[in-house]
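hiii so my PI (J.) wants the whole complex modelled not just the main chain, which honestly fair. so below is everything: two entries, each one labled with what it is. i double checked the lines twice but i was tired so who knows lol
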Amino acid sequence: EAGVVQSPRYKIIEKKQPVAFWCNPISGHNTLYWYRQNLGQGPELLIRYENEEAVDDSQLPKDRFSAERLKGVDSTLKIQPAELGDSAVYLCASSLDTALVYRAEKNTEAFFGQGTRLTVV
Amino acid sequence: GENVEQHPSTLSVQEGDSAVIKCTYSDSASNYFPWYKQELGKGPQLIIDIRSNVGEKKDQRIAVTLNKTAKHFSLHITETQPEDSAVYFCAASIIAGYSTLTFGKGTMLLVSP
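here's the output for the full assembly
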């Protein structure tokens, strides 16, 4: 079975231009996350979805970042306009439904995609 | 919110030696502590995790220990091999509601043949 699929793998854009990243989670995983990983740092959450609902977007810079997961499956993260400081790796992850995990003590593992490396010049 | 500190930032060992990476967390409500390994150009991959109802968990050459009172947990790798070279991240979260993983800053482990 395929893991979390992200595209593109690499993206170079000029500042002020828009950019979009796409993620297809593991089949059956209701929870989807977007993380940003700066060089030499750990991943930091941008937004978390439970099905199509964004349940935590407190760290998403809403003036320029937006995300959607219209049918509760794949998701798109957009930046418009991009700034130099947005250069980072954008990681998508998915996991089983959190409530189900809590009740049934099931595997809580979050599976990560390979990420999209964004360079803003 | 949760804050996770990880040490050391880099760790160099000889093949066959043991490696220990330590993390502390701030939120006493956290009850799930995974460790991820990230190789160059790849996303993080879970290697072992522990819940707060146990103090130690082992999987072949890898073990994790948890001290809830002191709010710290550690990753132990024995008989290190060159393929263990990677960046390791600890994380913490609460298994309930909408809590999300908070990651440490990572430890770059270099295993020399």
